[in-house]
Amino acid sequence: MATNLEFINQTEITSGVTTINVDNVFSDKYDVYYCQVVGVFHDTDVSNGIEGLRFIDNSGSVITGNEYGYATKNLSVNGYSESKSANNNYMWIGIITDRLSDSGGASVGFYVFNPYNSSSHTFVLSQASGKNSSEYRASKGIGVHTQAEIIRGFQLYESNGARTFGGGQINVYGVKWIMSGSLIKIQEEIVTSAVASVSLLGIDSTYDVYQVVLSNIATDTDNVFLETRVTVNGTPDTSANYDIAYQKFRTDTDFSNGYQTNLTGMLYTPFDRLGTAGNENGNAIMYLFNFNNASEYSFLTVESTQRDKNSGTLVGEQGGAVNTVQQACNGLNFDMSSGNIDTGSKFTLYGLKK
After folding, report:
1. Each residue of 118-128: pLDDT tens digit?
2. Where are the domains of the chain?
3. The domain 183-352: what is its CATH number?
């Protein structure tokens, strides 16, 4: 039976080593990949985490230079902290674990956007959970490899030779947006020349929940944000009935909370200030709820990762928005606060099969 995740590779994490390479898993067949590290643990009790990811370039070499940016929210039963870097030699994705007998290991799922595009930076959205010897931990994060080149694989990386892996498993899937399976493609728009706006239409009573994937979203005008609005009978609703709330992740300063009410659109959702200086673009996954129900408000959740106009700073949002009108909405409309949506931007709408 067809599925929306096409299995590519499974790699066992062997004991006694500090790196595991997962090579030749990315290609031009997919724009987006979903990867899992399942039940990874150390050979010994440690209180620290596994450093994270390094990518493998098209020649098969692990990229060890200071070419990674990340911003991760670390959560625990005792509070939270932030980890961020604009120029690091690995990408932290929040894996915290120790010995399997103590914790059961840790697991992380992460999306990789556009790894095989030689003209684009490679972006990551991640979330993890686990336990070390002291507490339960979880994380949400964003990341970027800051060079435009072909990426064909990745490495799970531990920096401390005394903290070798004990076991676990890595799975890689191509995100196959097809016409059957649990995700049903409804509409896709790929911008081939700059346009003022893009609409994704086709939401009706067929599905309760819809997904929108935004890939490599770009603008032809510097210092603008993407505006998102619901559509009613195909027309964008520009009334002042939008509320938004989010946490913004950044590599250059502390994370911050944002919220506004009675807006004329979902401003800054999912992207803040996009730019034109090369790879200052964005990627996002959104879920839509109650859109076709004329008796309910229309809600959405969003997680995004982008490089903004401030010298390509890595920024991301985790949050949501609502259109506070009881009306049936049949889609979303996107435009820039000024200028146009540029070539290469990709917008796709899916229904989640009941």
Report:
1. 999 999 999 99
2. 5-175, 183-352
3. 2.60.120
